[in-house]
């Protein structure tokens, strides 16, 4: 395999608050290859958005990237090294803030946010904002940029783009606004687009249109995507490879088909089981019990053990690092669960523990840890 | 809808909604409805109603869950509020346990409210942040003079436990709870006055998937235990499929299809329902993707299309009788007409447009003459003339535009009736309520005599 477009190694982002350190992203590693749509899935609070803003170095105080390496097309977006005193400091080849702004953001890596209203300025016309963006980032003169902007609007399916060019964001529907943002993201033909829950706020019909459009545009331009979502259906539809996140860690990583049909981590299977299906009637949903713990004080050992139906004593003690569990010749499939033989920490001999998920019916009925009965 | 009959005739139905309408006008306010013109008299006043709910009829039987699904802006929430008479209906009636809510007011209505409760979408903003959850749950009981203070507290604790919370959290504030738990507090509050009927307006759409499943399960358990009847509103078809017994699909203020859950999902009869079902992504990478997609935006409810309101986006608009085109040619005409309307192309050369839109099938006869005329307009850059010609002579001539569809069909799965508002079903219909004479959208499915 050729060099990945983006490679993230052991990325750690922490927020230093009065109550303590929140380890929002705690050592995740993944690659994005050229022309690939990579999914980043998880519940709210899993650290998905912090991970993507870290890639663009957009994490603000009190948050800070404290470790790891991010490489993009051979350039170092983030990297640390120890200096003579053993203090960590940014490596020399790490891009400066100005280089990030001028070369990377928007031009090489674009981002689409969930709420299109907040990403567009309400006091400027849609066309004007798009034109300005193209003008600055591609060095075109205003007329060329305007022509290009109208072309992009047509490309993403805005009806009558010439007349809508002069309208304001509030005159566009939610789906239309999201299309404008996609047009903006594509305008500089970046190599990577990070889409942070771009269809979550939209209706199913509009979501469908946008997904279809993204697939088409992706084929046409060969752009890579990191698609952040909590919706497994969207993952199934557009992603090539998927990373499942839980409480700041990637707990499973696989090709999309393997993830759904050869699920290795109990959290992933629980997530899949808890969803009602549109294509068949499910008699009983099997929810994941409990709520995600706070990242400020994650459970010991495997972070999912407090909600895991298969948890055993050893899960509380051993913290599993993701390991490759694929058979020879198969695509990479990693999971961080000690129930697999590859970990060899004595899971089979370890006694099962009482968790919210294994504590019988009463626990299944309450979110407060089985105190109901 | 052909379930219409004398309201007293169906003793089983807990709630009967008949031809319910809710229009919002824009006449409140000093300058409301005032428009500026270029010509004399420069200023004009117009009143235009937003027809949010426009002639909706359905029954809800005791103990069942009726799912109501539709895109945002189709009038689901307005319908729910009008049914509970939180909004004054413009027309129509709502019979709850045989009494017409639309004619009640004052104290009798207030007492009636005890039996009907509502759960809102946002669990955060529907709880008073300055009240503890115990008093929140007790408040409806207080309003309806239920029990004494001690009894209320005991009941509140019992209900908290029933909805899966710790009764010891009685003294906590809403902010101390997660989204899913807050929605449970809402459930407990709704249950406190022992209602028969609960309207749930998107109760789980703000929650994470795993939490969503927990809350849905709790709602089902409670329904069984307290014999509740739900009107369950959601835009998520998977949730609707899971929780509903029967499902109504709404589009632009009207119900376009209503049938048993299985029947509706497995055997949808309305093109809009089909389009909705096709649009949902399936959590299965081997499902093979979607087939067709809707194009265009939902039209404005101020001036909805005549006849079938879905016709401006429908992939299966029926060919006007005046023409004799092949199906392919008609599809191409429709597609071309919509493309002109959306100004989806810049091309003005007739030949190039023909190649693009009428490659495999060209209309013949009258239709071809009209098409040539339209292409001529486009060549001279008269897009508006072309649009008007195509719309008047093709789109507006279709039966879909001239008559309001309302058909009752036999049901293939399940034994209940299947209502579909689509003219494609006219041949299989066992009863219909189409009023051919009314072209201005005055006829409503609800105004039928089909069952008589």
Automatic annotation (TrEMBL), chain A:
The UniProt record lists the keyword Cell membrane: yes
Signal sequence segment: none
A biological process term (GO) from this entry: peptide transport
ABC transporter domain mapped to chain residues: 6-272
Matching Pfam families: ABC_tran (PF00005), oligo_HPY (PF08352)
InterPro entries referenced in this protein's UniProt entry, alphabetically: AAA+_ATPase, ABC_Ni/Peptide_Import, ABC_transporter-like_ATP-bd, ABC_transporter-like_CS, Oligopep_ABC_C, P-loop_NTPase
GO CC terms: plasma membrane
GO molecular function, one term: ATP binding
Subcellular localization(s) per the UniProt record: Cell membrane
EC number: 7.2.2.11
Keywords in alphabetical order: ATP-binding, Cell membrane, Ion transport, Membrane, Nucleotide-binding, Translocase, Transport
Reaction equations catalysed: Ni(2+)(out) + ATP + H2O = Ni(2+)(in) + ADP + phosphate + H(+)
Binding partners and assembly: The complex is composed of two ATP-binding proteins (NikD and NikE), two transmembrane proteins (NikB and NikC) and a solute-binding protein (NikA).
Protein's name in the database: Nickel import system ATP-binding protein NikD
Organism of derivation: Halorubrum trapanicum
UniProtKB/TrEMBL annotation, chain B:
All residue ranges annotated as the ABC transporter domain in the record: 34-277
Matching Gene3D superfamilies: P-loop containing nucleotide triphosphate hydrolases
Annotated InterPro entries: AAA+_ATPase, ABC_transp_ATP-bind, ABC_transporter-like_ATP-bd, ABC_transporter-like_CS, Oligopep_ABC_C, P-loop_NTPase
Keyword ATP-binding carried by entry: yes
Region of interest: Disordered: 433-452
A Pfam family it matches: ABC_tran
Keywords of this entry: ATP-binding, Nucleotide-binding, Transport
PROSITE patterns xrefs: ABC_TRANSPORTER_1, ABC_TRANSPORTER_2
GO biological process: peptide transport; transmembrane transport
Sample GO molecular function, one term: ATP binding
CDD domains in alphabetical order: ABC_NikE_OppD_transporters
Database matches in NCBIfam families: oligo_HPY
Name the record gives this protein: Oligopeptide/dipeptide ABC transporter ATP-binding protein
Organism: Halorubrum trapanicum
């Amino acid at each position: 395999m050729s060099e990945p477009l983006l490679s993230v190694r052991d990325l750690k982002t922490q927020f230093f608050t009065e109550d303590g350190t929140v380890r929002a992203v705690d050592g995740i590693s993944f690659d994005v290859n050229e022309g690939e749509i990579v999914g980043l899935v998880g519940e709210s609070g899993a650290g998905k958005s912090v991970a993507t803003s870290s890639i663009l170095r957009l994490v603000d105080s009190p948050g800070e990237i404290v470790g790891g390496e991010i490489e993009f097309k051979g350039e170092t977006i983030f990297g640390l090294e120890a200096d003579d005193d053993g203090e960590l400091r940014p490596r020399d080849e790490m891009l400066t803030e100005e280089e990030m702004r001028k070369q990377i953001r928007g031009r090489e890596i674009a981002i689409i946010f969930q709420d299109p209203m907040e990403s567009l300025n309400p006091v400027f016309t849609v066309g004007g904002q798009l034109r300005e963006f193209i003008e600055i980032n591609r060095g075109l003169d205003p007329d060329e940029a305007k022509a290009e902007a109208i072309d992009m609007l047509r490309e993403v399916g805005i009806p009558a783009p010439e007349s809508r060019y002069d309208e304001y964001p509030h005159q566009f529907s939610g789906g239309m606004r999201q299309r404008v943002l996609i047009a903006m993201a594509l305008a500089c033909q970046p190599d990577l687009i990070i889409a942070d829950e771009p269809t979550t706020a939209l209706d199913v019909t509009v979501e469908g249109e946008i997904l279809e459009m993204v697939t088409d545009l992706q084929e046409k331009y060969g752009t890579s995507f990191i698609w952040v979502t909590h919706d497994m259906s969207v993952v199934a539809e557009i992603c090539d490879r998927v990373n499942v996140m839980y409480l700041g860690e990637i707990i499973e990583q696989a090709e999309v088909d393997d993830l759904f049909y050869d699920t290795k981590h109990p959290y992933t299977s629980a997530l899949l089981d808890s969803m009602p299906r549109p294509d068949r009637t499910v008699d009983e949903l099997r929810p994941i019990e409990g709520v995600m713990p706070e990242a400020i004080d994650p459970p010991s050992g495997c972070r999912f053990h407090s909600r895991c139906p298969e948890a055993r004593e050893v899960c509380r003690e051993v913290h599993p690092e993701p390991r490759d569990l694929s058979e020879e010749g198969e695509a990479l499939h990693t999971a961080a669960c000690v129930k697999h033989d590859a970990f060899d920490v004595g899971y089979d001999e370890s006694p099962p523990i009482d968790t919210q998920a294994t504590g019988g019916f009463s626990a299944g009925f309450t979110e407060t840890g089985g105190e109901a009965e | 809808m052909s379930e219409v009959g004398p309201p007293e005739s169906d003793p089983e139905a807990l709630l009967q909604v008949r031809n319910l309408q809710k229009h919002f006008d824009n006449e409140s306010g000093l300058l409301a409805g005032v428009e500026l013109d270029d010509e004399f008299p420069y200023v004009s006043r117009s009143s235009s109603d937003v027809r949010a709910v426009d002639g909706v009829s359905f029954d809800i039987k005791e103990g069942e869950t009726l799912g109501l699904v539709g895109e945002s802006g189709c009038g689901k929430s307005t319908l729910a509020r009008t049914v509970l008479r939180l909004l004054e209906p413009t027309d129509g009636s709502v019979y709850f346990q045989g009494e017409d809510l639309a004619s009640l007011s004052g104290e009798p209505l207030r007492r009636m409210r005890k039996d009907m409760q509502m759960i809102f979408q946002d669990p955060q903003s529907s709880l008073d942040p300055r009240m503890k959850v115990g008093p929140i749950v007790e408040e409806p009981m207080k309003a309806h003079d239920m029990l004494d203070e001690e009894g209320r507290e005991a009941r509140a604790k019992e209900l908290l436990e029933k909805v899966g919370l710790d009764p010891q959290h009685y003294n906590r504030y809403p902010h101390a709870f997660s989204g899913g738990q807050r929605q449970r507090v809402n459930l407990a509050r709704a249950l406190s006055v022992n209602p028969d009927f609960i309207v749930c307006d998107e109760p789980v759409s703000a929650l994470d998937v795993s939490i969503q499943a927990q809350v849905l399960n709790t709602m089902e358990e409670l329904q069984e235990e307290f014999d509740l009847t739900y009107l369950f509103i959601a835009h998520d078809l998977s949730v609707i499929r899971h929780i509903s017994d029967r499902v109504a699909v709404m589009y632009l203020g009207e119900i376009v299809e209503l049938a048993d859950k299985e029947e509706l999902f497995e055997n949808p009869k309305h093109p809009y329902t089909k389009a909705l079902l096709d649009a949902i992504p399936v959590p299965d990478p081997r499902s093979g993707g979607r087939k067709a997609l809707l194009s265009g935006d939902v039209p404005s409810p101020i001036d909805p299309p005549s006849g079938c309101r879905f016709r401006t986006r429908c992939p299966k608009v029926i060919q006007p009788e005046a023409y004799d085109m092949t199906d392919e040619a008609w599809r191409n005409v429709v597609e071309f007409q919509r493309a002109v309307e959306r100004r989806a192309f810049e091309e003005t050369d007739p030949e190039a447009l023909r190649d693009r839109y009428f490659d495999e099938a060209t209309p013949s006869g009258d239709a071809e003459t009209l098409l040539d005329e339209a292409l001529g307009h486009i060549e001279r850059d008269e897009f508006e003339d072309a649009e008007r010609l195509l719309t008047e002579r093709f789109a507006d001539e279709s039966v879909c535009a001239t008559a309001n569809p309302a058909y009752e069909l036999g049901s293939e799965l399940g034994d209940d009736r299947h209502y579909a508002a689509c003219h494609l079903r006219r041949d299989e219909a066992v009863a219909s309520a189409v009023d051919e004479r009314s072209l201005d959208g005055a006829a409503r499915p609800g105004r039928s005599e089909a069952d008589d």
